[in-house]
Design brief:
The structure is a homotetramer. Chain A is an alpha/beta fold. Chain A has helices at residues 4-7, 23-29, 34-51, 66-79, 90-101, 119-124, 137-153, 161-175, 183-189, 203-215, 225-238, 250-265, 294-299, 315-329, 340-347, and strands spanning 56-61, 85-88, 107-108, 127-130, 133-136, 158-159, 194-195, 222-223, 242-247, 273-280, 303-312. In chain A, the strands form three sheets. A six-stranded parallel sheet of chain A has the order 7-2-1-9-10-11, with helices on both faces. The longest helix of chain A has 18 residues, at 34-51. The N and C termini of chain A lie far apart (53 Å).
């Protein structure tokens, strides 16, 4: 077995979609069959969302996307006003993006490690594995600890995950963001809200448990997932035309789809999401939400049928093509940032 | 198009694993290859968890399992002391199990509806579709409303989802449980804790948003996902030997795996989960947690390598065989209920 | 690394579906959702084929099914007159079934070998791997050589694969079948035709290449895939009502479906296959035939829509349940063997 | 329902990889994780095969690739001497490529047709469906009939599929190829052999059955799959360094891999395939060959371990990137055509 240093030698590098104009390639795929045609249609719908200046665009992230090299795609999307809000799993935002903003990196695993045959050895070396990618667990523990520090400085009351993640952005602003591209930091600067509806289910969970334990009977930071839902619904009410750009399924997909119903429950007749794209490897057979079709979501009154497209592909292949298409079409140049964080702060409950 | 009543004519019926002794069938599968052999080994590990009287068994549920007819399997597992805690997505617990406890049912969809070609019609009729299964949305709205009633009666402070779900059990106890088999109600009676780490991401979220909205500036119920994590970790600390029986992946899988690390952060050297079984259709290729191998989890120090088994199968086929095997082996007769809810109430923070 | 003998220590054992009555279990699955419901319907259609005494049943086999422990299922199906013809990949018939009839076995691979990390070592030891199963390559070479011996004794002219496989059965009859259950031998005795439309693509291919090479300019055995197609079509013409029981997709699925069109081309208006069941893990997304739906096959005029069912499952799990269901329903007791080999010999071209 | 003419209005258009230089995009993918990294490595290995002037490159095609819009990719690969032999399913070569060479087209199906809900209507209109693509069955019957005409003009003896496909190229040369890009015709002109080991399992099968039927007792064309195997093995013996570029699995994958063993059986110590790339959506779980890893193939002594890469992706997305990469790297400019048909004619047996 190699030493830790040798195993963590080659960092993941984030792809830059601004460099290759994929528009002709993707347009050609529209005349083909199967996933290529689906991908081209998804790209066209994504461009359509960007072109529609009434549309608030919600990016949903599930899966290990940041560690996989897609970080800069999303940061560029924020910078180009192609994203107005983000709903994500905790790992993408805390363990991976914030982790890199603290100055750490993800590493390419040698082929043999993918087999799982060396996981006991990795355990000994305090190296965590995500399929073909490695993480220094000691560095990840620093990330955990930093979330505790942030929690300790917040008011002892229920916060939405969005409020907490905004505080993470403020922390980076104060102590320095140690990477050129950070979703948390870029979203902080541009007032783009980020929601993580299962916020304890990541590195921040460890910091929060430690925080709550240390506080004992004193008021402590709680992460109120209902508040998240309330806030995201406010955005739907304020900006009825919406589009979902979803990578993977899981909680982010369901959470973002559900705000149509939540708005209705609060007495606002909000339209279904007008645009919806999902990139996933999950399939429809097991009835789980992650692979459920966007047509099915329309039976629930959540997604409109006119502009929806599933793309069955692993994200690292499809996202650079679809987001690259929307970027190079250039319609984002007519958009301005919605700065939804500003909208949320006053209406926040609690 | 048929009328609503005609579409909602044939209810889903929950399978009863006590009726067929599958032990010889599953034992024979151990001598085969591929999924049959994996399934047999998973069944053997499940039986081993049940036999190990030191082992606290955590059942993790993701996917539409209750609507799919697996409810009685889990209720029987609770009754036989084969489950000591549950971590689930919200849909299984609230939209599906609690929904049925309120007297409603899920219905078999006609073949043509699976195509998605009739979802706009279903929308008109207020029928929600889960692949091949139908739900009366009007009934589901009653379920949403009931969670608001429950929230309105709780103290205005952060609660763990476990506390809230226990209150749902108490509600059923008071107003009557209208089905013979309910996970929420059975768990309530036997003091089995149920955690839903992304609790707003289900029918309860609608009730909670309405509750918080109605409360305005008054103290309100918050659902603190950090408290969930804190509580589940306490169970690991109190009962270090643990086994995970996981159906699907997602937040429940990650959340339950993570308590090993959380215990460590709170200063307790807890062992990795000693047993782990996962039934899933997700695969390893996209690096997402749902399909990540249990070997990979061992690199994170979460799952031990000696007794772990992935079974790549849709749950409705594999669960009756595996849980049926453990049931008919009968080692649960030597177990007593842990009644972990009793353990949690005093240590609960907040 | 272990020695060859240690690696090849635990043989695969073939499951015996006659031992557990799965009818109540499968009937219960009909009231569930997802794959369980599909499986129950597939079992019901299979039973219906068996009940329909006009129906000729064609079993299609793709994937490593015999090495996986399903051999006895198919042998029992032949013995019970539940199968009237077989269309298969070569590996199942020659490398696996005939191989076992020569007295050899398949072996269970230790977990670590599945990773592929030891394949170079296996190569050194002349052990071939099929995922989690091992084969002694020296024994497989004997199987190759035996097919050459059989070819050498045949007339030097084009043969259908069926004729050749029948000669393999005769070889076993003469030299002794060294296993209790053999598809090739049982089919020989009961005059059930077996077709392998890509016959060179297996162990027999090696024997045939050696045979043709040795013959030089002399007349030699050719395997005429057109003759296979012609013969199978004759069966459809002679017995218009047909059912397909397909495991996996590939050439066997397509070949058997196509005979409806071939009959039409020969001037016989044959009905579409009346019953069709397919068990597969392939999905529809890539447009390949293996995962194409049976509905799609109806657009080609090959499969009727009334009784068709896809089951998305790995075969080792689904086949014992579906075939076990048909066996224990017992309607095969009213059937007699069609002995289609007798029908074919006179009409054979060439 | 629309009329046939309206349904067959928008033809599939074949992608042109020469137009977009994807080298920077694919190179960037090498620094990512998951499928992007695998794809980049597969592209690099493909370029390496092309650079290695000793290497004979065998292209293996399974799945509906030509109807899906990939035809021009393969024709360009032949033109650039990036392909020395082809092993394919029959559908790609006969029903799709030769069909288009006769002047027919494939058509884009409207979204609703993909559901399968309209297949009975399509049947009425004599329109065949491949997932999201449509074919005029009347035109396909012309293709069937043309293969009969070709068979009728051949000598009544066993032919390899390669000989027959070469005759199809000659037919196009004589009667005119009605499309700018045809694999069959381009391969004919450049003496690139095409093998279809299950040749009856396609449109040609219908023509051959009709031919054999019409011939009655007279000598007739037989398609000898053993001869195919013999011929392909001769190429391996003549040119020991080989690389496999495989799209999908099935018979073509197995057939091409097996020639290493066949060469050995004929007394020639041929090295394993030095390079191997496979693009597939099949997975390893069911033990079927299509999804079996290239590492597993090395246990069989068929594929070397140094330069092998699986890419889990639907072909329409991955092939333009991988073949586009190899094209734009430009190393094919140093290659000359092997014209293997010339090599084969004299050594052909029988």
């Amino acid at each position: 077995m190699l030493k830790k240093q040798e195993l963590l030698a080659t960092p993941i590098e984030h792809i830059d979609i601004t460099k290759t104009n994929v528009v002709p390639l993707v347009d050609a795929m529209a005349g083909m069959a199967f996933s290529a045609r689906d991908l081209a249609r998804a790209a066209e719908i994504t461009d359509r969302m960007v072109r529609d200046q009434d549309c608030g665009i919600i990016l949903c992230l599930a899966g290990s996307l940041i560690s996989a090299g897609l970080k800069k795609v999303f940061v560029d999307a924020i910078r180009c006003n192609m994203v107005d809000a983000i709903v994500s799993t905790g790992a993408n935002i805390v363990d991976q993006d914030f982790f890199e903003a603290l100055g750490y990196k993800h590493y390419i695993a040698a082929e043999a490690l993918k087999s799982g045959m060396h996981d006991a050895d990795l355990r000994e070396l305090a190296i965590d594995r995500i399929y073909d990618t490695l993480i220094d667990e000691d560095e990840l523990r620093v990330c955990d600890d930093t979330t505790k520090i942030i929690a300790d400085e917040l008011e002892g009351r229920p916060h939405s995950s969005r409020e907490f993640i905004r505080a993470m952005g403020a922390y980076l602003d104060k102590h320095g963001c140690k990477t050129a591209d950070s979703i948390v930091y870029e979203a902080y600067k541009r007032e783009v809200p980020i929601f993580v509806p299962a916020f304890s289910d990541c590195s921040a969970g460890f910091g929060l448990v430690a925080h709550q334990h240390a506080r004992g009977d004193q008021p402590k930071v709680a992460i109120d997932s209902a508040k998240d839902f309330y806030e995201l619904t406010q955005l739907k009410i304020a900006n009825p035309t919406t589009g979902l750009f979803m990578i993977g399924g899981g909680v982010p997909k369901n959470f973002a789809q559900d705000i149509v119903v939540a708005a209705d429950i609060l007495g606002h007749e909000a339209p279904m999401h007008k645009y919806a794209v999902q990139i996933t490897v999950a399939d429809v057979r097991d009835g789980a939400l992650s692979g459920s079709t966007l047509k099915e979501a329309s039976s629930w009154g959540k997604v409109d049928l006119a502009y929806e497209q599933m793309v069955y592909s692993e994200a690292t292949m499809a996202v650079p093509l679809i987001m690259g298409y929307a970027y190079h079409k250039g319609h984002w140049k007519q958009r301005t940032g919605r700065e939804w964080n500003k909208l949320l702060s006053p209406v926040t409950v609690g």
